[in-house]
Amino acid sequence: MNGSLTLEQALDILEKHAAEADAVPSWPASSWDALRRCGALGWSIPREYGGSGLEPLELLEGYQRLAGACLTTCFLLSQRDSACRRLRDSGHEELRRELLPALASGQRFATVGLAQLTTSRQHVRPVLTARLEEESVRLEGTMPWVTGAPQADHFLTGVVLDDGRQMLLVVPRTAAGLSVGSPMDLMALEGSLTAEVRCQDVRLERRYILAGPAERVLAAGGRGTGGLETSGLALGLARSAIAYLQKEAEKRPEWQARAAACAERWQVLQEQLRRLAREGADAAAASNLRAKANALVLRATQFALAAAKGSGFLRSHPAQRWARQALFFLVWSCPAPALDATLTCLALPE
Ligand SMILES: Cc1cc2nc3c(=O)[nH]c(=O)nc-3n(C[C@H](O)[C@H](O)[C@H](O)COP(=O)(O)OP(=O)(O)OC[C@H]3O[C@@H](n4cnc5c(N)ncnc54)[C@H](O)[C@@H]3O)c2cc1C
Fold first, then answer.
1. Ligand 1 atom closest to Cα of residue 189
2. CA 291 to ligand 1 centroid distance, Å
3. How many beta carbons lie within 10 A of that of residue 33, not counting itself?
């Protein structure tokens, strides 16, 4: 569909399709199209490449609003934007010119398969390896988690060389030897179409190397995992649950104290998020906020479910979806320090 939409109109479309996007393993086409029509596909892409280049704070607020309407669609966007940002920050002008304008207009879709360098399979041998040859690089293994994989034209991924050094690469979908598995059967966010991507003797030209070889190629760009975006999405989802609690509390006095406490906590964390986005966040500060945002989204969504009672347990009610989706923040891009701090926040009282 053509014609532009305001963000409010796009949010209405996302909210209308949120239950289906969560429950059905197919591409949320109407919601993605709404993102395109309201300009959200250009938010993270600089103006010179056809985007609108939002400032970090504006971008986080945009993600929050999208996450509150449909976490699945917002998650897809956040993974695509992670690929866009790594391209943008790579200094690889040829690939930037080739890919960023097409990503900004929605003609192409890219995603990331990076967890094998950070939070997945760290206790086993590298699952995606590469060998540098004179004019090319050869890939062998798997990207264990790739959101939106069946829809992707390009995969931004991380590989490990024989000597332990790492590289970031852009892998075109059409590369011979690359195959995308079936979408995994998930407890929530089914429309994210998360799948494994396999590389069997994939040969790439060297121009697809985005960064490295380096010892810790993700740290080199200054962007580790568990950044502010994940906390922003958690707070966005929490806000929907809290708004529901506040509405219930208007007619049910027994919910007033809890609704007010959640809203107050949300405000405190929102201020912290804004401050870190303005001033820059080191890994410890980002991890600390992530833990608190995780704890709030888990509690607020469970309070909303409890307030909705048995009716909230029905698939037709958003409370059960929020509660299931909140669990995602325990496992998505959650490095050990952030998980440890989350579990401390959730610890049982003595
Ligand atoms: C829905 C979904 C979408 C995602 N999308 C993306 C994406 O688009 N891009 C991306 O890069 N990542 C993505 N991720 C990956 C995510 O960020 C984490 O990396 C992932 O959830 C880590 O889980 P894992 O099972 O791979 O961890 P692993 O650490 O590999 O754990 C797997 C299993 O190994 C065992 N184990 C773990 N540690 C040890 C140990 N020290 N010793 C012995 N056994 C151990 C446990 O039994 C565990 O169940 C996604 C994850 C999910 C759930």
1. 1
2. 18
3. 17
Shared domain for 128 and 212, answered yes or no, is yes
Peptide bond into 46 cis (omega under 30): no
314 lines ligand 1 (CB under 6 A): no
CA of 98 relative to ligand 1 center, distance in Å: 32
Q: What is the mean pLDDT of residues 12-41?
A: 98
Domain match, 236 and 257 both: yes
Q: At 62, which CATH number?
A: 1.10.540.10
Indicate whether 272 and 337 sit together in one domain. Answer: yes
Q: How far is the CA of 334 from the centre of ligand 1 (A)?
A: 9
User: Ligand 1: which residue has its CA nearest to atom 42?
Assistant: 123
Q: In angstroms, what is the span from residue 146 Cα to ligand 1's centroid?
A: 11
**What is the predicted pLDDT for the residue at 220?**
58
- What share of the chain has pLDDT > 70, as a percent? 98
pTM of the predicted protein model: 0.97
Which pLDDT band holds residue 135 (cuts at 50, 70, 90)?
A: very high
Q: Does residue 7 line the site of ligand 1, with CB under 6 A?
A: no
pLDDT at residue 221 greater than cutoff 60: no
- In this predicted structure, what is the pLDDT of residue 58? 95
Grade residue 325 by pLDDT with cuts at 50, 70 and 90.
Answer: very high
**Which atom in ligand 1 lies closest to the alpha carbon of residue 148?**
8
Quick one: 256 and 329 in the same domain?
A: yes
Within a domain: residue 243? yes
- CB 184 near ligand 1, within 6 Å: no
* DSSP classification of residue 135: S
Sign, CA dihedral 98-103-107-109, equals: positive
Residue nearest to atom 5 of ligand 1 (CA): 147
Domain range enclosing 32: 7-108
